[in-house]
Design brief:
Layout: H1 11-55, H2 59-72, H3 81-93, H4 97-102, H5 109-118, H6 122-135, H7 139-147, H8 150-153, H9 161-166
């Protein structure tokens, strides 16, 4: 029935604008949720880490804590013993809350798990963290850059890496 109604002038443009705004708001909401989760995971990890360091809590406490959180929040993922151990490792890797709020919270949790699993040196981890944020790397690209040793290669050879990454349009191949 709605298809039979004549559309007024400007309707299509308004519809397109609204769709763009709605999609933009959805993306912003997803980023906000991701940021809040990263900050929550860091604070949970920090609390566990501080208690383990200061009060001698053992590893079994994490198992019990995970069990109790899963009972309290049924159906909510992210509170397994493995996840809580990642949160603790995340807090141990980033003890400075400022870097977590300003840089680390810009990446999804999966990126942080890659950084924690693949990089043991804090300086390396921070370099890849900042590069992933600056260049908007997906998790797969982050893994690829770590595997290829980008940090070690950068500066050793003349490169147009930064200039190419800043371009918004792809370079078309030359026609010879």
């Amino acid at each position: 029935m709605a298809d039979l109604i004549a559309l007024p002038s400007g309707y299509s443009e308004l519809l397109q604008e609204l769709k763009t705004r709605i999609r933009g708001a959805q993306v912003q909401a997803a980023f906000a949720v991701s940021r809040e989760l990263i900050l929550l995971y860091w604070s949970i990890g920090r609390d566990v880490l501080l208690r383990q360091e200061g009060q001698g809590w053992g590893a079994k406490v994490i198992d019990r804590l995970a069990q109790d959180l899963q009972i309290e929040f049924p159906g909510v993922e992210g509170f397994s013993p493995r996840s809580l151990k990642y949160m603790r490792a995340f807090a141990a890797a980033w003890r400075d809350e400022a870097i977590v709020q300003q840089v680390a919270a810009q990446l999804p949790w999966g990126h942080h798990m890659v950084l924690l699993d693949r990089l043991k040196q804090p300086a390396q981890r921070e370099w890849y963290l900042r590069a992933a944020v600056e260049y908007g790397w997906s998790r797969n690209i982050l893994v690829l850059q770590i595997k290829s040793g980008l940090q070690e290669r950068e500066g050793k050879a003349l490169t147009n890496f930064q200039r190419r990454c800043r371009r918004r349009t792809p370079i078309s191949p030359s026609r010879s």
